[in-house]
């Protein structure tokens, strides 16, 4: 089975599709034919816990709202972990939806309904 509990979806500049899957604690990238390009499911400190919103910037970088870990992860376009962009130290709590803008702004909606805007680089 490709998906267990898919939640959010986003498209990349190169026309692949990114899906967060809560049931697998994974991010899955597929091409337009449904073939898996990569599956991001790390263990350890970078492991996802109920990943929710996903979005892609104009360079193809992926942003993942890591709901259960109260953080946002940045992945390269090939699905490799780059860094945690935001976390608890940013007063981020249970991020659900995420969007980035061309002006290096990140808009996040938390499960409590709060909308937060951050700058990132």
From TrEMBL:
GO MF entries: ubiquitin protein ligase activity
Gene Ontology biological process terms, A to Z: proteasome-mediated ubiquitin-dependent protein catabolic process; protein polyubiquitination
Alphabetically ordered keywords of this record: Repeat
NHL repeats: from-to residues: 37-78
Highest taxon, organism lineage: Eukaryota
Protein name, UniProt field: Tripartite motif-containing protein 2
UniProt organism field: Magallana gigas
